[in-house]
Design goal:
The complex is a heterodimer of chains A (294) and B (356). Chain A is mainly alpha-helical and 294 residues long. In chain A, 72% of the residues lie in helices and 3% in strands. In chain B, helix 4 runs parallel beside helix 8 and helix 13 packs across helix 14. Classes of the chains: A mainly alpha (294), B mainly alpha (356).
């Protein structure tokens, strides 16, 4: 029983990281209608920036994280401006291939700077672990910070989308970018803002992910990126609460699958659950059904 | 002679050019090989090159002709590779003639991949667009993961399967473990040759190009262009979508057979059967031109050779590859890039008219 609870806690912790990444994915998808395959690599860049500033330059972790968030925000906006903006009216596949190109680019830049060797990432969390039930259940500081960060980010994003002017502009653009433009919404800057927020979240996710799983290579971001995308689809892509629920569920399923079924099949189980959900509900858990008209 | 070429239809002529290109490329490479002018590195790349061409052409059937974005192509290749390698390992002593054995292996790999294509296609093709993409990706990853936990051995009592390790198979003395989980299949006979690869490319091209220009192909394209309109004129949407998807999967399986019999060790790793492989093939298809079969062939060859030709730049080569990829997409698909293309075309037209 204790074992189960501790796996559950680990699952929620991992799921929170997926949820943060998935939030970025889902926002970009909702607005730019594109699969940003490079999102996972922004996570990796964010983690490497913290690695350089904290482990390398010896700055305090908070400063390192801040620098990383700023760097990733700028990176996200630059990627959008250079690679995606010219393709706004191009076919979906062209944008997808460009995103793949950006992903290769970021991986290889990191490979050139840091090399292919695995770096061990020092956790940026300094909170003591909490022992519950006479020490039989230990919740690490990383878990606490990750879960709290995820909840704050989710609530923050939802409030931002609902009450702020730019948030409502985002909703309008995702609904119908043409109509939004006619209503005086600056579509280009709204999309840029979305990428900025998504990339900032990716930086935070990268730091949290590498604090819990401290190995860092240029390919670290790719699998979590795909999983987070799965989480976003799982919850209904384009929906913020959907991304949150999808992320948490995915993390829990992965850790429980690893613990009770097979550690090698954990990924397969995650993907199998996704397939089953999509076959029953083709637009994800919280996705809206769009009726096709003739 | 003149009347004969005129009597050929435009598509037939275009198809003949494609076949001719492949044959010509084969003859040229063969001449260079005989003359010993090909480095061993490049020589080792010939069979993979054939494999990539087959993969690109077959994926183009799904992505270009059927209009479904599939990211799980490597999964079907994995099925073809493992079933055929398994067959070859089992039959190594029973069928000593490598030609017949390899022919049967190709058939088995292709048929198994086709079966998987049908099996996966039935649920998956109900979905659309990005959902379809992510589910095919998921299936590809599942196939790769499942292959990695299977242990299969053979002794005098027959076959034994386990998902734990080779000891739990409980083999008798002298039993042979054929599939060793993450270690995969070792000792597959190296039956793949460049000639067989080229023949398989020609067969693939023959199947795909004839399919496109048949009644079936037109039905598939009609569904791609407007599903509801196609349905309303009586086209069986599920049947034709499934047909295109499973043919594409079968051909990916053929490529897998070629891959498996080119290496003595076959392992399912992220880099050969993971989603990255599927994406690499998708890049070939998109850069070659969606729906353009000859483009897929050329793109597969050029993009496989490009990183090798850039090898002297070692660490920078994949970076350059990425930049070329982004630049090509922006150049071909953005309004700005298209304008430049128009201008270049105009410039050449002007020069031609001036010369005339």
């Amino acid at each position: 029983m204790i074992g189960f609870i501790s796996y559950l806690v680990n699952g929620i912790s991992l799921g929170s990281v997926y949820a943060i990444i998935a939030l970025g994915y889902t926002m970009v998808y909702g607005i730019a209608k594109m699969l940003n395959f490079a999102h996972g690599d922004v996570i990796m860049i964010g983690a490497f920036v913290v690695f350089s500033t904290v482990s390398g330059a010896g700055l305090p972790p908070v400063v390192g994280v801040l620098i990383s968030v700023v760097a990733c925000t700028l990176l996200g906006m630059a990627i959008e401006r250079i690679a995606y903006k010219p393709l706004r009216k191009a076919s979906k596949l062209a944008v997808l291939i460009t995103a793949i190109g950006v992903s290769y680019f970021l991986q290889n830049v990191a490979l050139l700077i840091y090399g292919a060797n695995t770096k061990s990432f020092t956790s940026v969390v300094a909170i003591e672990p909490i022992s519950l039930m006479d020490g039989s259940l230990v919740i690490s500081g990383e878990t606490i910070v990750t879960v709290i960060a995820c909840i704050i980010i989710m609530i923050g994003l939802m409030t931002f989308m609902k009450y702020s002017k730019s948030g409502r502009a985002m909703l309008a653009v995702s609904e119908d970018s043409g109509a939004a433009q006619l209503m005086g919404v600056n579509v280009n800057s709204t999309i840029a803002l979305t990428f900025a927020i998504g990339s900032a979240l990716a930086a935070i996710a990268g730091v949290l992910l590498c604090s819990s799983y401290p190995s860092l290579t240029p390919y670290t971001g790719s699998m979590p990126g795909i999983k987070a995308f799965v989480a976003a689809v799982f919850g209904g892509i384009g929906s913020i609460p959907g991304a949150f629920i999808g992320g948490i569920l995915l993390g829990v399923i992965e850790i429980l699958g690893k613990a009770y079924i097979s550690s090698q099949l954990a990924d397969a189980i995650v993907f199998a659950v996704l397939i089953i959900v999509l076959l029953v509900k083709p637009t994800g858990l919280l996705g809206r059904q769009i009726q096709e008209k003739v | 002679m003149k009347t004969k070429t005129r009597s050929l239809s435009k598509t037939t002529r275009s198809n003949l050019i494609t076949y001719g290109m492949v044959v010509a490329a084969y003859i040229i490479v063969e001449i260079f090989l005989r003359a010993g002018m090909v480095s061993s590195l490049l020589e080792g790349l010939l069979v993979p090159l054939c494999m990539y061409v087959i993969l690109a052409v077959s994926l183009n059937l799904t992505v270009g002709i059927s209009g479904e974005l599939s990211l799980g192509h490597a999964g079907f290749m994995c099925v073809g590779a493992f079933t055929s390698a398994f067959f070859s390992r089992c039959m190594e002593t029973a069928i000593p003639v490598s030609g017949i054995r390899f022919f049967l292996a190709i058939l088995i790999g292709t048929v198994c991949a086709a079966l998987f294509g049908i099996l996966i296609g039935i649920p998956v093709l109900r979905l659309k667009g990005d959902y379809l993409a992510i589910v095919t990706l998921a299936f590809g990853e599942i196939i790769k993961n499942v292959v990695n936990v299977v242990y299969l051995g053979r002794d005098s009592r027959g076959f034994h399967v386990s998902t734990k390790d080779s000891i739990s198979l409980g083999l008798e003395q002298g039993g042979d473990v054929i599939i060793k989980g993450p270690q995969g299949i070792t000792g597959t006979p190296n039956d793949s040759t460049f000639l067989i690869g080229v023949i398989l490319i020609l067969v693939t091209l023959f199947i795909v190009m004839n399919l496109i220009n048949s009644r079936t192909g037109r039905a598939v394209m009609a569904i791609r262009d407007n599903r509801i309109a196609a349905e309303s004129v009586g086209i069986n949407v599920t049947k034709y979508k499934l047909l295109a998807f499973s043919v594409s999967a079968a051909l990916a399986g053929t490529a897998g057979v070629l891959y498996a019999h080119n290496l003595s060790t076959l392992q399912a790793q992220p880099k050969n059967f993971g989603y990255n492989m599927s994406i690499t093939i998708l890049v070939f298809v998109v850069l070659g031109g969606i729906g353009n079969i000859r483009g897929s062939v050329i793109a597969a060859v050029v993009l496989t050779l490009l990183p090798e030709l850039l090898r002297s730049l070692n660490d920078y080569r994949m970076l350059i590859y990425a930049v070329i990829l982004i630049a090509t997409m922006i150049f071909t698909s953005s309004p700005g890039g298209q304008e430049i293309q128009e201008r270049i075309k105009l410039f050449f037209k002007h020069r031609k008219t001036k010369e005339a």
